[in-house]
């Protein structure tokens, strides 16, 4: 039982780390001389970064991705705290339903963010406000980590739903 508990905690912390990295790091869309995410665009030749503001076309889509990624990270952290609390407060044989629901909300939020970015990336990177051409890029590792975090949060959410407290 102790090994299972340790695995669940490590799995949840890994999910949270993936969410933090994919939300913060500047590599959702990368090219040979630039990298961009939902916060800024960086030119690697000149080592300068430019924040993505409301001057950009499709800024509403970027804000939706920002908001849902932040919500996903918050939900994941709250789910971990609720799990620790439920670990000590639940009676024997009860399920971790509240933790599961919060973790599945985190899963839903990261799925929404990655789906919006997947759908709108062409319009996002055709904006004239960029100083360099960013439409000729590819998905970066932060975007991939967001999808991996989706799978991890989904698995852990279902795992919490199935899990019962034992002695």
List the helices and strands and how they pair.
Layout: H1 2-24, E1 29-30, E2 34-36, E3 40-43, E4 48-51, H2 59-89, H3 97-124, E5 138-139, H4 141-162
Antiparallel strand pairs: 1-2, 1-5, 2-3, 3-4
Helix pairs in contact: 1-2, 1-4, 2-3, 3-4
Q: What does this entry look like structurally?
A:
With 167 residues, this protein is α+β, with helices and mostly antiparallel strands. It is built from 4 helices and 5 strands; from the N terminus they run αββββααβα. It is elongated and about 60 Å long. The chain starts with a helix and ends in a 5-residue tail after the last helix. The relative contact order is 0.22. The mean pLDDT is 88.
Short description:
This protein is an alpha+beta fold. It is built from 4 helices and 5 strands. Strand 2 (34-36) and strand 3 form a beta hairpin.
Key descriptive features of the protein:
4 helices; 5 strands; elongated; alpha+beta
Order of H and E elements? HEEEEHHEH
Radius of gyration: 19 Å
Strand order of the largest sheet: 4-3-2-1-5
Structural class: alpha+beta
- Share of residues in helices: 55-70%
Strand content: 5-15%
Give the oligomeric state: single chain
- Mean pLDDT over the full residue set: 88
Shape: elongated
What are the segments in which pLDDT stays under 50 over at least 5 consecutive residues?
Answer: none
Main sheet characteristics: 5 strands, antiparallel
């Amino acid at each position: 039982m102790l090994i299972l508990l340790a695995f669940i905690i490590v799995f949840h912390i890994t999910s949270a780390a993936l969410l933090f990295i994919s939300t913060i790091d500047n590599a959702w869309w990368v090219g040979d001389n630039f990298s961009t995410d939902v916060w800024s665009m960086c030119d690697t030749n000149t080592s300068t970064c430019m924040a993505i503001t409301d001057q950009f076309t499709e800024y509403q889509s970027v804000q939706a991705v920002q908001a849902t990624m932040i919500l996903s990270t918050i939900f994941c952290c709250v789910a971990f705290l609720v799990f620790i609390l439920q670990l000590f407060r639940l009676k024997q044989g009860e399920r971790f339903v509240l933790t599961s629901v919060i973790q599945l909300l985190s899963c839903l939020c990261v799925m929404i963010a990655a789906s919006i970015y997947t759908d709108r990336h062409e319009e996002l990177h055709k904006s004239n406000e960029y100083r360099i051409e960013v439409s000729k890029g590819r998905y970066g590792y932060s975007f991939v980590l967001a999808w991996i975090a989706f799978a991890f949060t989904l698995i852990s959410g279902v795992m919490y739903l199935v899990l019962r407290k034992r002695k």
